[in-house]
Amino acid sequence: MTELGDEGVQILAISPDSNERSQELARRLRARYRFLTDPDLAVTRRYGLLHANGGPQGQDVARPTTVVVDRRGVVRWLQLADSIQVRPDPADVARAVRQLGS
Fold it and tell me: Which of 35, 45, 53, 54 is the residue whose CA sits 20 to 30 A from 1?
């Protein structure tokens, strides 16, 4: 399977972690995508992706979310998880991206 970046797709990860921590993670993962920071959860709140009191110490946290958006900004695929340990199958994301070209 080709990498999504090879298909003309731009991948962004948005995290409440500091830029330094996100960049270190990107290096470790050899990620071919950009990490953006949302330390105050403003973007998370704006899009309704906040899990209020969902953190280990009862703090607000971002819900793990994967979104496929077309060139016009229309959401074409969305997976919202209740647990930070749940992530979509990469094949499902790739399939959603390929359907944009259909």
Answer: 35
Handedness of CA 35, 55, 57, 53 (dihedral sign): positive
Which amino acid is residue 54, in one-letter code?
G
Q: Write down the pTM of the prediction.
A: 0.69
| For the chain, domain boundaries | 4-100
User: Could you read off the pLDDT of 55-98 as tens digits, one per residue?
Assistant: 889 999 998 888 888 888 888 888 888 777 787 888 888 888 88
CATH number of 4-100: 3.40.30.10
To which residue do tokens 């994301």 refer? 93
- 82: Cα separation from own chain's centroid: 14
